[in-house]
Amino acid sequence: MKIKKVAIVGASGYSGEVLVQLLLNHPHAELVAVTSRQNAGQTLAQIFPKFASQPKSKTLHFTDPNVEILSKQADMVFLALPHGVAAEFAVPLIAAGCVVIDLSADFRLKSADVYKEFYAHDHPAPELLKKSVYGLPEFYREEIKKSLLIASPGCYPTSILLPTLPLLKAGLIKSAGIIADSMSGVSGAGRKAEVDYLFCECNESVRPYGVPKHRHLSEIEEQLSFAAGTKVVIQFTPHLIPVNRGILTTLYLAPSEHFSDAAGAAKVAEKISACYQSAYANEPFVRLLEGKALPDTKNVVGTNVCEIAWRLDPRTGRLIVMSAEDNLVKGASGQAVQSMNILCGWPETAGLV
Amino acid sequence: MKIKKVAIVGASGYSGEVLVQLLLNHPHAELVAVTSRQNAGQTLAQIFPKFASQPKSKTLHFTDPNVEILSKQADMVFLALPHGVAAEFAVPLIAAGCVVIDLSADFRLKSADVYKEFYAHDHPAPELLKKSVYGLPEFYREEIKKSLLIASPGCYPTSILLPTLPLLKAGLIKSAGIIADSMSGVSGAGRKAEVDYLFCECNESVRPYGVPKHRHLSEIEEQLSFAAGTKVVIQFTPHLIPVNRGILTTLYLAPSEHFSDAAGAAKVAEKISACYQSAYANEPFVRLLEGKALPDTKNVVGTNVCEIAWRLDPRTGRLIVMSAEDNLVKGASGQAVQSMNILCGWPETAGLV
Amino acid sequence: MKIKKVAIVGASGYSGEVLVQLLLNHPHAELVAVTSRQNAGQTLAQIFPKFASQPKSKTLHFTDPNVEILSKQADMVFLALPHGVAAEFAVPLIAAGCVVIDLSADFRLKSADVYKEFYAHDHPAPELLKKSVYGLPEFYREEIKKSLLIASPGCYPTSILLPTLPLLKAGLIKSAGIIADSMSGVSGAGRKAEVDYLFCECNESVRPYGVPKHRHLSEIEEQLSFAAGTKVVIQFTPHLIPVNRGILTTLYLAPSEHFSDAAGAAKVAEKISACYQSAYANEPFVRLLEGKALPDTKNVVGTNVCEIAWRLDPRTGRLIVMSAEDNLVKGASGQAVQSMNILCGWPETAGLV
Amino acid sequence: MKIKKVAIVGASGYSGEVLVQLLLNHPHAELVAVTSRQNAGQTLAQIFPKFASQPKSKTLHFTDPNVEILSKQADMVFLALPHGVAAEFAVPLIAAGCVVIDLSADFRLKSADVYKEFYAHDHPAPELLKKSVYGLPEFYREEIKKSLLIASPGCYPTSILLPTLPLLKAGLIKSAGIIADSMSGVSGAGRKAEVDYLFCECNESVRPYGVPKHRHLSEIEEQLSFAAGTKVVIQFTPHLIPVNRGILTTLYLAPSEHFSDAAGAAKVAEKISACYQSAYANEPFVRLLEGKALPDTKNVVGTNVCEIAWRLDPRTGRLIVMSAEDNLVKGASGQAVQSMNILCGWPETAGLV
Prior knowledge:
2 domains, about 350 residues, seven-stranded parallel β-sheet, alpha/beta, Dihydrodipicolinate Reductase, domain 2
């Protein structure tokens, strides 16, 4: 298997840091460049002491991002940049022949109109939206293999789409009335010097935000609509909780089949169980919980796994599905590496277990 | 104003501790007895060093609970006991002429059948269910004034009922399809030596539990049904998050009046705003947030205040209401003291600000 | 008792916020002005929702700091400003006849030379150093009564001086070789938008900093030297731990009297105990722990109390003294209010219990 | 390289859990048995959902510990048991020909008298104390290669000995007057259902404990005495802080060579630097920090690395050395695996990076 040379643009944020960790340890990829304007000139070991035990961390220096140089150094480039900035790099890098795996929201949507509605400005490179693939491997594996521009999904979207897409595709739930209630660790806000994310502002606190129209809705709803074959609009409420990493999402769904007692629920349960088994029994990074187990972020933090459990409520006729993931791994950098593995024909779990 | 003598049965748990704090500082109540089997013989100061600066903490000793003695010492008795145990004390204490303010779930329901459904055994004193009053002052103030047995509401129920009851009573929301998603601090589990609540099991973790039929549903639904004039069944999912104190509840409600754009939403908003203003503008312990503010537990922890904010979503036609409270104060001991103040004819905020 | 009008300059930081809380509730002081450049024009309730239940929070607006206006509005002015900035306000305010209670380090030292050594620039108003009093009430009560400029001690210094000064004054410990090892909550770093104090940088982390020459050493050593009657140089290591509030200090001291067994220790213990009793038995805000109890920040957070416990070690001949305080209350704003109470002839505990 | 079969006795505690994680992923060891009385009959996946993605976690069941069976199944047995219980297993397992790697304190001391002084009962198998080796690889590598009973060091001892032993051996510091001040995460207390370690008792709290004679002193002092060639008695104060994992130790040491200014310090610094370089430059699991960097537990948690930094203080003539480690990895299970690697002739870092 040929080693590929990879670079990370924007390697000093939280997602960038996890990417560094994963790529330093990847068996088939060689990390050849890391960029960061503020850290240019310093080694990985100086900025991230935790990586100092790895020899390469002492020789690899952060550089100012430069497309021309990057395109010569690397076969593939990961963009861990703020929304809007990523496109500025993606366009010329692709033109220069690099594969781009973008962790921002810039290429996740197919519709430039929806982009404008949610991001309040015209899309900077609408022609690329047709070429990009939504990097959710469990649903776009074949497309990922052939793409040169992978738009890695957002953290909240991953935690909502993985539990929902199989049911929607199988027609087991109604596409109307979906509610997603999520709790995220503070790393989701990025390594930004803002008062709102200071320790004392987040510790001993829990708060909703972005109610009722968070930007991530755009990609969630687009993907749900593709799966349902009809326009889907959902309710989504994110909350900030005092943990470093982890997203817990609780979904309120309406089964297509009505039930109002334990017997009715059992019949529906059989179908849901079969649907999830069919979708995920062989997926290395989706874990269907059994018995009384419910998701807990502490069981997935540091891994690329998304845990899923569900309960039918005969009192309300509703289906409750709960998921847990590490927002920086399955919700960001791990999933991006998973896509890289697929794209390169490597084992999908390479560097991820 | 005559000073009343009060006792706390079960004063060594988290609710009991907050009751001690509030009653040691109350201008019209005198704490004369605190019971705790495991701490009998020790002073308040020995068990709770934080109260050691108050002279009474060095002279007041925990005792074994004894109804006969308590009924002679105290005019009013607070029961901060596990569900099921409280009734054993309430019955003889009331017989002995004491006013009882019970923080357990034993007397919160009017229906002994519902009690049996949710608590899996017959109610130990069903005749008292008719005499007890549900101690939610904002809705039962007049009844509290005349009652000898106050069943102080649960923490989750308070965080759900305060935002919901006014809307339901005014017919502004549908009684069907209500969803309540709650996050609670770990003190809600009590001061119990169980592995599940160890620091390392809760820190860096968020997890749902009790899905889909938590016991608190019984009192929530009974109160909602009274308000709606029809049987109400709701969806409720509690989550455990790593904070000591605080509950954040996000409610998904269906306005009675349909709307699908900003203009329609504005008309509905006017009515909701008027309803909340009418219900709470003069309530000392409900804070309606204005402008862009959303609830945050850190703004209510340590106080008897419940914060409420709401948003209409023209995309879904739904009403999102969010509340924050301290589960040990407005959700337990503070609310119990508020009821005591009402019952005794004292200023409702006495000892609570 | 005549109500005094008080103002806070720099009321939007963590110390400022606690000052607001204490002064809004003070029985003899009326908060008439709060300044904050960034929040000018907004009410207290808008910036600090937690105070919104107090009527004044809705009418009192933050203003830009203006000495002329402040000196007309207020009898006393609290300065909760960064080091160096406080002096710019203190000088004209005192000239205008205001009493100044400064929470910064600007006037804590008597020696302008030491100031220059530790703060790397000339003292801006050295003549005021003679007029200021070090606002540690337990040791400067009489001086505080007569002063117009109170330099309220730092958080670390308070946690070190309260356990040490009585022993040093009584000659029970040697002045050489003192070691103070402290752990502080993150609010000690102030409400500053810096990456180092983000939630994810502090949570699940403990780290020393400022080793070996932290600025607080200057005032600690000056006060210890006054007490010892000789120049004292100590070792001090601060650590940052993931709590919002609280400082725990462990002191390693050498008793003047040698001992090497339990019997010897018992004799020394008697003298130490008598010394502490004499110093603090009647102090409302110093709590000498008894029996097996050791300090715990959770027992003092939110109070103006400093807990102290000590142990003699017959194996090493050393005395270990441990203290716990809330860095924002006894370590800052509470102590400042305590000084105000003394200065104004009010009960020393007014507004602090 | 021949695969060795390994078992873990007491695999349900925090150290046991990390051992499971390390051994499930070890390239040369095969985990064949895990025991736990309370979990007997359940699979690894059921008890530790986080391991559920590994196939073996679904087939390996916890069993009741049985020496006869274990000695047939495994070549090597790790004991992650409480002090005192480990010896009951070690004796028969060694007799049956197994290599034993014990994580308890049972075989760490050479002196049965010291054991009795600190553990308050006679040593259960004093003859084995002669055969056991103290499993600190950086100092006992050769002995580990030949031993059948490895007593893996305690978490606090590791954090104190690694920074101290090289200096003491080189005569660069005095053996008298050593002070070690440590802060530990709560996992150090084990997965025990005790009120003291509940989330709400540890969160927002920092407290010293075991002052002044913690049991770990016995092994620390024995090792320091061996290194110094004279009896060493130290001062040690552990503190509990609200993190899951991590120990930060700050050491106060007296350099043998006097200095009192920057020039003098520079000369001493050169020797200390050379000593540490000589001891650790080639050690894979000791990281000497450079420049302004100071240890931070968040940089070592999840790794087998111990970070060390030091500062000379010309004001006091003292040397301050600070270390950070993960108490469950380098302080327990990682170090035990490191010893196993050495003993088996495998690369020392196998399964640890």
